[in-house]
Structure formats: C-alpha cells, structure tokens
Amino acid sequence: MNAARLLALVVAVSLLVPVGAVGGVPAVRLTVSDAVVAPATPVVGEQVTVTVTVANSVGSESAVSVDQLRLTDGDREVARATRVGALSPGDAVTVPLAASFAEAGPRVLTLSVVGTDANDRTVRVDRPVPVVVESAPPLVELAVAEAAVESESRLAVSLSNPTTAPMRNLVVAVNESLGQAVESRRTLPTLAAGETATLNLSVVPDEPGVRTASVDVTYTTASGVARTTTFARSVAVDPFVDDVGLAVVPVRPDEAADDATGGLGGLLGGLGGVAGVGGGGAVTTGGDGAADDPLPIRYEVTATNFGTVPVDSLVLAPTTENETLPRVRLPESLAPGESATATLDLSAVRAPATVTLDATYRAGVRAGETNATFRHTPAVADVRLTDLDVLRDGDAEGRVTVSGNVANLGDADLTGVVVAGVATDDVRPVYPHRDYFVGSLGGSDFAPFELTAAVNESAAAVPVRVTYRVDGERVERTVRVPLSDDDAEANGPLAASFGGGPVGDGAVGAVAGGTGGALFALVAGVLAVGLLGAGALRRGPVRGWIQRRRGSGDSGSSRRDDAEASRRDDAVTTRPDAFGPGRSEP
C-alpha cells in the first residue's frame, strides 16, 4: 500500500469520527468544513498554505469565540492562528495557516480548533490534514554564450538533483522571450541522486540589448508527481556586425645551403668540364649572383573575425585575369576575435599576375563575403646563349666549333640543361661534342658549353637547341648561331633569341629571349655585361685547347695530355681577382 492510499484511508477514517464539543456542551457545535493544502504536493523547504474554514453550526444554541487554530506534526507545532473571532450560529470564517517542511515524505498533520461559548466553556475540534512533501526540485543553471542578433546562440542548461531519490522524465524547453528557438527542447530519461547533467539548446536573438532568457524544466518526482520549475536570467545581446579581414603574406622558400661546388669552386669545376675531351659540361649549383630572397609560390592567408557573430564555412577562391585557381576551405569556425590560416599554392601561375581572393562564408545565420587582391610575381626562366664564338678548323669536312655560355637571366632554377647541335641539310653535329650536358642552373647563373659540327658551303648558321626543365616542365628552345662574322656582329652574343617552342606545356613560365619590351631589354643588357666578363674568363682555356688540338692530332693520348694542360691553364686563368675588385690573389 503506497503513501497516497494510506493517506486516503486516514482521511476517510477521520471523517467517520463525530466532531463534537469538548467539555460536555453539546449545544455548541463548532465544525471544520474545509482544509485545503496548497500546493497539493509541496517540496522540501517550500512554503505550504493550509486554508481552514471553521463554522458554527446553524443548530448551535449560542455563539462561539474561536480562540486559536493550531497545526501540528506529531509533537511539533508547525503553524498557529489566534483570536480569530466570534461566530454566531450559522457563521463561518476562513483562516490560512503557513508552514514548511525540512524532510520529504507523507505525513498527517493535526488541525486543532479551540473556542469558547457564551457560558465561557471551552469547545475543541481536531481534524487530520494529510500532506505529501516531495523532495526539492532540480537545481538549474543557465549559461549563455556570446549572444548577438541574427546569430545562433547556445544555451547550456545544467540540471542537478539535490535529493536522495532519482528524478525521471526531465524535459527542458526554452521560452522564446530571447528570440526564435532553433533547438527548443531536450529530454533526459533520469537524473540520479546527486547527479548533474547539461542539456544544450539554441536560440537566435532578434533584438540587441539586455534581454531575458528563460527555460522551463518539467520532471517527475520519486513519488510519481509531475512538476515544473522555471529558471530565467538576463543576457546582453550584441548588435549584428559582419567584419572579416584577410591578410596575405608570402611564404618564401628556405634559402639553399652553400654547396662545396658553389661560387668560385663551381666556376672552376665548370671550366674543367669544358677542357676535358669528352668530359661533359659544367654543373653549377648557383653562384654569387643568385637572388637573396627567392620569389614565393605559396602564400599564407589569415582570416580574422572582427565582427560580433561567429563565422564558419569560409571558402577562399583565388582568381587571376585569365584563370580560376583551386579553392581552399578553412575548416575552423571563427568566434569573434579569432583567426585561422590557410596556405595558398600558386605554383600553377607561371607569369606575373594580380590575384583576386574572394572569400565566402556564413556570418551568424546570414551569408557573407569579402575579398582581397595582391600581386604575384613568380620566378621565371630566361635562358640565353651568350659570348658565342665560332671557330673553323679548315679541314675538308668543314668542321666548326661553337663555344659560349648558356645563361639563366631569370629567377627560376633550371635542371637537366642540355645544349645540342641540330642536324639540317647543311649542318651535321659531329664528334666529340654533338651535345653538351650542363646540368643545373640557378637564377642569374651561367655555364660554358662547346659543340662541334660539320658544315657545307651553303651553311649560313649552326642551329643550337637548348632543353631544360623548370618547375617540372620540359622546355625546348632553338637558336641559329651565324657562321658569318658580319651576321655575328649584327646579332651580337646576347641577341641570340630562341626559336622553336616548348615540349608539351613547358613554355609556361619560361621567358624566351628576343625583342621584348624596352625595359626588359635594358635589364637584360645590364645583366649581360657581367655575363660577358665571366664568359671571357671561361673562353680562354677553350680556345687554347682547340689550338693545341689542331697541332697535335686526334690521338687519345694527345687528348688526355691536352685535357691536363687545359686544367692547368684553368687554374692559372681563373684567378680570384678576375671575379671582381677587392679580392687578392691567393
């Protein structure tokens, strides 16, 4: 038998007990017509009001004075009212009694009404008042994240059960006093004694200023009674501000470490390659003329949220005048004041261009966009043949030797550089240098080469083809080297412009020689002065080797002796002071 049935039985038995006057005065009939408990199921610590209606029966022979009403819980008095007043036969009076209880559980209170009749005799009436006291409601805490108009704001509702019994069927619902609810309702099957749980709701505020956020918590007590409690707090709501800033910073490649063959050593090694009969060409790793700061191909884009609402789903879409580049997405959501960085790879952009960076995102519940522009100047390759020299052997075969330097006037690094003669009806590449492997060329770097070919009387020029790789793309260029001194005077060593075209897409990013603009020609001329000086340094041993070769024949031993002599000449000719003022001879 549960507590509710026990209380109902007690009340029923109590109503069967006749209520009469105490002291042997049956002529005065004092009655308690009603006793209402509110709330019907109070909780621990909550104020309970028992409203009592006391009446003097119509059949009473005299009036009665109601002296006091007492509400007791066993031996403990929980409420009292005194000097209520006199009641004539047929009159009634309603008296509220307030009480509270520190412990949960069912109990039967005793209501005692004491009065005095006209003959000064005491009249007393006792009546039971059953009450079921529930445990305390859950403790509620409401945390609101930074709230702004037109932005979904999270409401974190923490529920704690302070009682010794579990609570069941908890439902948390947000009121729309703050704005439109997005996640308006959350449920929790049970909350054990002493346990705390957090439920998340969300709402979109519609007005700025100090607003009220409130939630209703409905739950079922251990005795099966459904109850509801409400919690509210003030929230400061910011106005809607959408402000996203973009900062673009170039990421420069790490500077290459100094190599043992770089600088002067690299140049000496190149000369040795020229002098060796069949020894191949120079492999240089960049000299003193390389740029101190390599041009960037990647950029760091930093997006900063300067507004009042969160920003998410941010996508960066870079474009140039003629090209749409791959988009970049920032996965993070940016709270107000936060930043995120993405890397933009522009290695596919092989020519200088103005890049427009369009950013689209969601600011709060609205769509937002912003943009930024910056100038991208990639490293390009500008390959030239400089300091060209054509020597005729005068033999019956019409053998000629073409020597010079292959120079990279650009910023990009070249790999796999090969200089080769091109066969035509009038020209035939011959031993020992049908082609010449140079290797790698850094920006503003050069290396010597030498080619041999047989020409007939109709030949006016020797076609020379240069192939290389830049940024992984293979490029092929061809230049015609005049055999006539007059043609050579007219063209000049730096005027050798490459014809032909790239293999595949290799032309992208490779700036060919040729006429170009006036400004580019001026810059190329300035660079050529330095290259000519260094080229003259390298050409001396080559000429000496050729002259010695004419007088000594083509035997293998003679070629080896010539190579040794050439290397000795190299060591003497390439004195350090030939590379610029201020250096002393070792």
UniProtKB/TrEMBL annotation:
The chain crosses the membrane at residues 518-537. Residues 557-572 have a biased composition (Basic and acidic residues). It comes from the Archaea. Residues 546-586 are annotated as: Disordered. InterPro entries: Ig-like_fold. Keywords: Membrane, Transmembrane, Transmembrane helix. This is CARDB protein. It comes from Halogeometricum rufum. The lineage of its organism: Archaea, Methanobacteriati, Methanobacteriota, Stenosarchaea group, Halobacteria.
